[in-house]
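Our consortium's second objective concerns turning raw sequence data into structural hypotheses that experimental partners can test. To show how far this objective has progressed, the report includes one record in full. It was chosen at random from the queue rather than selected for favorable results. The single chain below, 214 residues long, was entered without modification.
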Amino acid sequence: MKGKFNPASSGFTLLELMLALSLVTLLSLVAFSSLNLSLKAVRRGQDAAANLQELRVGQSFLERSLSSAALGIKEVKEANKYFFGEPQQIRFFTFLPLEAHNPGGIYHWRVLVGRDEAGQGVLAVEQTRNINWIRDREGVELRQILLKNVGSVRFLYGAGGKEYDNWDATKNGGLPEWVKIQLAFGGQNPQEWLIPIHVSDTTGPQQQMPGRRG
């Protein structure tokens, strides 16, 4: 005798289908979350590597420019000894131009904290040749961003074993012995490095002045 056909015994019930669908959805969410976390970790690693490389380039540029700092320019009486340092900017003369193809000479640099078009913090440099700076103290011939995505920057100045928030070469009788830079990229721990200043007169880089630390 043939048994009666029971539709329920030939497939899944609605409840079973709903449970299976819920389980698949849950597993998909877990897999997507894991993938998303992995991608974020990769991006953070890439950003950190890019910031580190940018920091090395910017640090090297600042070290070379400050190491080539000039005591001042003889053509301007009030600039015979010239170096103005504040917590957020530095103004000084250097023998190092921003672009390698520029001719030799003395350049006025202003290193400052600012923001780019996207509103992110940057560390930038404004450059003017000394002869043009004499005509226009606020003129800028070339502007270049050294570091991007900067969260905070602070400059400190040292001499005689002491540390200062500000430095005026005219009042202090010369350039500081070193500049300390405290810098933090967005969302990262702050970094700090110290740059010794090797003072030169306006004729070109010379040996360090007596009484200055190397």
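The partners drew two points from this record. Residues 52-196 form one domain. The first helix runs from residue 14 to 67. Both points have been shared with the crystallography group to help prioritize constructs.
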